[in-house]
From TrEMBL:
SUPFAM superfamilies listed in its UniProt record: Thioredoxin-like
Protein name: ArsC/Spx/MgsR family protein
Family: Belongs to the ArsC family.
Pfam family for this entry, one: ArsC
Originating organism: Chryseobacterium arthrosphaerae
Domain of life, per lineage: Bacteria
Coiled coil: none
PANTHER family, per the entry: ARSENATE REDUCTASE (PTHR30041), PROTEIN YFFB (PTHR30041:SF8)
Amino acid sequence: MKKVFYLNTCDTCRKILAQFDLTGWELREIKKEPITKEELAEMYKLTKSYEALFSRKSTQIKLRGLDVKSLGEKDFKELLLDHYTFLKRPVFMTDKEIFVGNDKKNIEALKTFFGVSE
C-alpha cells in the first residue's frame, strides 16, 4: 500500500507532490474523500500519536474556539475524523513508513525515501 493524502487547494501540497514520481501511489484528495477510521488507525500505528497527525494551522481551531494545549489523544482523533483540515498534510504512507507534513526535515526524509537529490 502506498498512499498520499493531500489537499488540492494547498499550493504547498501541490509543490511537494510535484517533486516525486508517484506512479503506483494512490492519491487521495482529503476534501473530496476524507480519511476513514481505518486509514487513521493505520496512520496511528506508524506515528503512535494522533497529535503528530494534527495540523495546528487549521482554520477550524479558531472557528471552534479550541484550546489545542488542553486536547488529549482522544480529542485529536475525533477532530481528525471530523474535518479534513485537521490533518497535517501531505501524508505519504506505506505499509512500514509515514511522512507527515511539510516541514523541512520531513521533506528531506521524503527526498531520501524517493532517491531524489537536489
